[in-house]
Amino acid sequence: MSDNINISTKMNENESEKIFSAIKIGLKWIRGDMNLDQLKGEFGEPEYESKNSTTLDYFYFPFKKAVIDLTFYETDADPVKFIPKSFSIKLADGYFSNISFEKFDDIGLIRIRDPDFVHFPHFLDSSGSTPLNIVNFSYQLAVPDGVRYDVLVGAEYFGELKNETGPWDFYNIKKAENLIEFNAFRRYRE
To answer: The pTM is what?
Structure first.
């Protein structure tokens, strides 16, 4: 019996392109190339907002098939009260976007060097509930000189494996074009 998971609903080409466009916008924002007003000019006003003592989250729900979450740190600085913390897109259960991991090479993401580029979370899940064919890719985004942060990126896929018994590395991935989650966050330096 296979531990692979199958996906049922493919987004249409227009929806997948809009998700990829949202990723590019989110990366500009998290990198520091776009301010909050410009971000709202692209995404509109948030559909839902959540605030606690240190963070503010803006949520968007494109096509009711995904969640976009933009998280800000609250600061004491004037005039900027909130600074970017993280950006994520998670597709609704059962959907996939038809965005191959190779597309990220074309938008400024730098692959983390082997062996850290590819992870199979199945082997980190003590419950064993994560399917074998879930694959995570790790990237870094180049940032402007002089900033006090790095931007780290993770993309999670339903992958097609060459062999379900390993080896558990990049060369065992036959295809990875079914993006299910994308995360980018700032890691601030001291």
So the answer is: 0.88
